[in-house]
Design brief:
Layout: H1 2-9, H2 15-35, H3 40-70, H4 75-100, H5 106-122, H6 135-150, H7 154-179, H8 185-194, H9 196-200, H10 207-226, H11 230-247, H12 249-265, H13 276-302, H14 309-318, H15 342-351, H16 361-379, H17 381-389, H18 395-411, H19 417-423, H20 428-431, E1 440-445, E2 448-453
Helix pairs in contact: 2-3, 3-4, 3-7, 4-7, 4-8, 5-6, 7-8, 7-10, 10-11, 10-12, 11-12, 12-13, 12-18, 15-18
Length: 457
């Protein structure tokens, strides 16, 4: 059976050579275009036509190999369609940005600065004369590095960042499969690879794709560490948090808080025997100063008081873009000052704007999606309950739930629906974990009751 499944997933013979030839052809055509000094406006689009298929061709063998590792022949199709839809989302995002908004978007600024960085790099100045290499300046610099490889194509840049976002979602999927192999991994895959916001908002030049990528990497490291593979997981966690922290330190810190909570709740290994309570105390004693250090370090890095909700909100706004589609989207935000404010904060971050709060087309689309997510939450309430009941057995669920809770508290005070709609794409891969733990139901066979598990579709 295993041999049959492996044959089903393995690419046909000759696929590798075909992919290599396709990549060479695209690179050759790109070089010819440059030799003939194709004008920048044309290359902005034409270059993207090359970049998209090239990225897909490079990714397909890797995705096929990963599907073989997981032993599920259907996953390769899910991965491939997820990547195709993400690249298509980049085209849609590009079209809306420049046909509807007239290019008034963060992506335009990143592209323009990226081209300047490219020229500096081409002249041998790898420092590119930037004030810093964090937050916005980092994305500018990274965009220049990307253009050094793919060429200064605006649409190509959209697709490249969309490709990064896809790999972030892929690492979230790997994390879920590693941490929760008995859960519904196909359901989780359908959520993260096909949810509309995850295919649209990060599919552009900007911070959202970068954050998704490294949050996914960090989460995969967390899954390994919580599964007893700390030596493998720790470097991946550090890498993911460091790369995410370059752009948005508070969000990277949420990963640390989730990890700390998961280790505190995690059951000690049975191999520890009588010393298990001592190990638990030692774990808590180790995690508390680490969390305090992370909060202090992040506050110093951002010159902000991260114990204050208002300060955190202001800092997050400063490290986020504000220009695209935000006009007319302001609302009275929710500042959490007591436990009574938490439910409204959760509703705001997850489901708003409501239909009656939408005053333009894009807000109406966000409202419609919020309603879909609300119905999904209500429809899967038993799965949500099952996830919460499994916190002791599945520390990765603790990690995801902690991130969701802290994120909702911090972002509920964002005073703009357009900005909130973009930022919460970082939340969804964590939130969807709570919908993919199948609930156990009682079934009666003859005179004996036994626990069975619902279908995992």
């Amino acid at each position: 059976m295993a041999d049959v499944m492996e044959r089903d997933v393995k690419p046909r013979r000759g696929t590798g050579g075909l992919v290599f030839a396709l990549v060479l052809l695209m690179v050759g055509v790109s070089l010819i275009g440059r030799m003939f000094q194709m004008d920048e406006a044309t290359f902005n689009v034409w270059g993207g036509v090359l970049v998209g298929p090239m990225l897909f061709a490079i990714s397909l063998p890797i995705l096929a190999r990963e599907a073989r590792k997981l032993g599920n022949p259907r996953l390769v199709r899910m991965f491939a369609w997820g990547l195709v839809l993400m690249l298509l989302g980049s085209i849609i995002r590009y079209t809306i940005t420049y046909e509807i908004y007239g290019g008034k978007a963060d992506a335009t600024g990143y592209h323009d600065k990226g081209v300047l960085v490219l020229h500096e790099i081409s002249d041998g100045n790898w420092g590119a004369n930037l004030e810093s290499y964090t937050r916005t300046d980092f994305i500018r610099y990274f965009t220049g590095l990307a253009y050094f490889v793919i060429g200064p194509s605006l649409l190509g840049g959209f697709m490249f960042y969309g490709w990064l976002a896809f790999w972030g979602l892929f690492f979230f999927f790997k994390a879920f499969a590693a941490a929760l192999p008995n859960a519904s991994i196909e359901s989780y895959g359908k959520f993260v690879f096909f949810y509309p916001s995850l295919l649209y908002w990060p599919a552009t030049i900007g911070k959202d794709a970068w954050m998704l990528l490294w949050l996914g990497v960090a989460s995969y490291g967390v899954a390994l560490a919580l599964g007893g593979k700390g030596i493998r997981g720790a470097p991946i966690i550090i890498l993911g948090m460091a790369m995410a922290g370059i752009v948005r330190v508070p969000v990277a810190g949420m990963v640390g808080l989730g990890l700390a909570a998961a280790f505190v709740v995690r059951r000690p290994s049975k191999k520890l025997g009588h010393i298990a309570p001592l190990v638990k105390i030692a774990t808590v004693a180790l995690m508390v100063p680490i969390v305090i250090f992370m909060i202090s370090w992040a506050g110093e890095f951002l010159n902000a008081d991260l114990t204050s909700t208002e300060s955190v909100t202001k800092t997050l706004e400063q490290t986020s873009g504000r220009t695209e589609g935000h006009g007319g989207s302001a609302y009275d935000s929710v500042v959490v000052t007591s436990p009574a404010d938490v439910p409204l904060a959760m509703v705001t971050v997850l489901f708003r704007p409501f239909i009656f709060e939408a005053h333009n087309f894009q807000a109406a689309i966000a409202a419609a999606e919020g309603m879909v997510l609300l119905f999904l939450t209500l429809f899967r309430w038993r799965w949500l309950v099952a996830a919460l009941k499994s916190l002791r057995r599945h520390p990765y669920v603790v990690y995801a739930a902690t991130f969701v809770f802290v994120f909702m508290i911090a972002f509920s005070s964002f005073p703009n629906f357009g900005l909130l709609a973009r930022q919460r794409v970082q939340l969804f891969p964590f939130y969807f974990v709570l919908f993919c733990i199948p609930p156990a139901v009682k079934a009666v066979r003859g005179s004996r009751a036994e626990a069975v598990t619902e279908g995992r579709s």
